[in-house]
Amino acid sequence: MSLDTVLARIDAELPAATERLLELLRIPSISTDPAYADKCDSAADWLVADLASMGIDASKRPTPGHPMVVGHVDGAGPHVLFYGHYDVQPVDPLELWDREPFDPAIEDTPNGKVIRGRGAADDKGQLMTFVEACRAYHAVHGVMPCKITFFFEGEEESGSPSLIPFMKENAEELKADLALICDTGLFQSRTPAIMTMLRGLLGEEITITGPDKDLHSGMYGGPAMNPIRVLTKILGGLHDETGRVQVPGFYDGVPELPAEIAEQWKALDFDHGAFLGDVGLANPAGEADRSALEMIWSRPTAEINGIIGGYTGEGFKTVLPSKASAKVSFRLVGQQDPHALRESFREWVRVQVPEDCKLEFKAHGNSPASQISTDHPAFEAARKALTDEWPDPAALAGCGGSIPIAGYFKTYLDMDAMLVGWGKDDDQMHSPNEKYDLESFHKGIRSWARILDAIAPGPDGEN
Amino acid sequence: MSLDTVLARIDAELPAATERLLELLRIPSISTDPAYADKCDSAADWLVADLASMGIDASKRPTPGHPMVVGHVDGAGPHVLFYGHYDVQPVDPLELWDREPFDPAIEDTPNGKVIRGRGAADDKGQLMTFVEACRAYHAVHGVMPCKITFFFEGEEESGSPSLIPFMKENAEELKADLALICDTGLFQSRTPAIMTMLRGLLGEEITITGPDKDLHSGMYGGPAMNPIRVLTKILGGLHDETGRVQVPGFYDGVPELPAEIAEQWKALDFDHGAFLGDVGLANPAGEADRSALEMIWSRPTAEINGIIGGYTGEGFKTVLPSKASAKVSFRLVGQQDPHALRESFREWVRVQVPEDCKLEFKAHGNSPASQISTDHPAFEAARKALTDEWPDPAALAGCGGSIPIAGYFKTYLDMDAMLVGWGKDDDQMHSPNEKYDLESFHKGIRSWARILDAIAPGPDGEN
Hints:
- Two copies of one chain form a homodimer.
- Helix content of chain A is 34%, strand content 22%.
- By secondary structure, chain A is an alpha+beta fold.
- Chain A folds into two domains: 2-198 and 369-455, 3-Layer(aba) Sandwich (Aminopeptidase), CATH 3.40.630.10; 200-254 and 300-367, Alpha-Beta Plaits.
- In chain A, the strands form four sheets. In chain A, strands 1, 2, 3, 6, 7, 8, 15, 16 and 17 form a nine-stranded mixed beta sheet that branches. In chain A, strands 11-13-9-14 form a four-stranded antiparallel beta sheet, covered by helices on one side.
- In chain A, a hairpin with a 6-residue loop joins strand 1 (57-61) and strand 2 (68-73).
- In chain A, helix 1 (2-25) crosses helix 3 and helix 1 packs across helix 14 (438-455).
- The first copy, chain A, is globular, with a radius of gyration of 23 Å.
- The interface between A and B is large, with 99 and 99 residues.
- Strand 11 (301-310) of chain A pairs antiparallel with strand 11 (301-310) of chain B.
- Chains A, B: GO terms for molecular function: metal ion binding; peptidase activity.
- Chains A, B: This is Acetylornithine deacetylase/Succinyl-diaminopimelate desuccinylase.
- Chains A, B: Keywords: Hydrolase, Metal-binding, Protease.
């Protein structure tokens, strides 16, 4: 009964909730670019004010980087911590956006209404589904469904440099019975998914310097070493013909998939043709002997995320450049050790660089993969609640993305984490024209209301 | 006698001549960037006015690209055509310049005074050495030393698309007994050199498209093909471990050096340690079994002049990009056929691109190598004249750069060309902080006066 009232309230409040999200999306909180530091700060202020508006004791907490937002509200029953991030990815290439990335709007599309703008899906829209569920519950019952700690980060898209120190310093304050994380998606845009396997991430930047200045390739071409030649030779050898990564020891700690999980995934009947077809591709590019679903969920990768060197403007310039650099990242699984891998990668590069060239590395954060325990009763409760809201029954799934926070909660706060989210495969997170389906936003809020109702004792203590 | 008067006039006029050059250097005539088209036009106007000021019948001649400047003046004796180019290279990376590239100035350096600014050495400063020599001769004698056609191009740094059509359409007007070209340098910054061997140039741009939009490497990393991976794999295979270029048929038409030229070059005693040491390198990077001088003068090369793909800004972005592209150029020698090589290179790339990826090529101009005949008596006369002006005797040398105009004069106007110039190895042509030694400018003007005096009958007809 009381759940129905809250769900009805959510339906009625949707337009107002959407307006609030658009307001947050207008703040260009790009965490990786120092030029936007003050915008990250504004986003944090906005969230503090919004939480306070529903009686939550919230504050902006300084870090050496962008601030955290922490809020507490008391309640009966279990103590949950909700995590989301308010920072967003850069927007370039800007020319590929159909609208200004930070001038969000509701657009009609053949597949229904979408909220278009940077951060709509990753992660502001998802974060707000939980906040709006709490707002509706509070409006109906005058209290929160249970004891809740709100924990919002502003550095998720830039390696979370301040996260672990902050969690260590505030462990007592942050510890709860269970963490709830909303930064993932539906399986195949359709099936609600609770993530139980998350890939880790390791980022490296390589810069190779050959001559100490740009040279004329007519005058020096031949005897002078070209750093782009060195860099492409090295990166061109990162994968072999079968898609295997060639860094020594790369596959140490990469487990085979347990038979029952392999079975379960097979049952999900993943359509890799449609998945790749959506982005103009056809053939899985990973290890030759693996299924596409394994390539995303349970196999490690090496990707060159960016490369630059020499003249890249209009026309042509016969320059023999001084420098060339690349950004490389690795998605990790199982027990792969990011620190050992960074060293192994650096050594693998080092031995391939001619003595003439200078080599510099820049570390860009690292996190191991995590395997989530589903023992906490909330997982079963949530699975039922999600199955009530969505057409398909909820699945226990893997996630190709890296959400290190889940592992950190376990490591530093000894707290299990439940990851659910409402993103769709075509949300274009990290790409131009990012969007979040209005349905994801609406049913996401309703889903949180159901989950909270399922794990909380209810306003009158009974459940 | 009359030569000494002209040389004295040149010495006295040097400050005024330098002021004129600085004026020309202030015009940012970057031909490869369409944004500077009007500046190229202004540079052409400036030259027309300057030639007219010494009684030369000069005009700006339209082309589909940047205009040509053509001037005629009558005189006794042989008819020479002088060629130079008024366009310059782009200036990026701008942050590496110690002064605004188009705000030139005379600077004192440990090695003497230099004219600092884009185009000082390549080719405005060199072009003006000839013009100033004519101006001085005209001032002293009231006539020019011989019949002269001035021919200035504005597209040399962007592949000279309009040059051949213009030469064909105006062959009668442009044909002379001998072409003089000032776009080369001294050998080892010291020895006046007449170039007899010039490398050709072939430019290609490759763009590889994988997914039809930028993707999130967490969501697609593994199954989705990354175009940077494809591009680096291909370009990483451009050279083998011994520095040999791997494009099929690349070495077809590459001749072995004739014994007597090999001898002569050995006698020049090229110091490759100093040559590479000047730019922070030590080991010749070309074919393992070739001398550094061969690598520059008589061996072909493949260089990656630029590469770009994915996220290259501050920080890190785990993007799996849609596109990656590179600019590649080849220096050609002997009978290497640029057209055949372009096709062979494209096919070599094509077969390495997975069917999933789109591949686009963009041609960026091509010119064969040229071998200059030194039969014309002017060559011997010039060698003596240069030996009189400079401390070391003049050498017949090769040139690693590509000055296709020499070959074009032969092919389209059946005219031999003599290439001499006063650039030094440390002029940083095509690089930040380009400069031209004031000594190069001064002795260059004097050298032209001597050459003209040697090949012309003199004002009173005797020689």
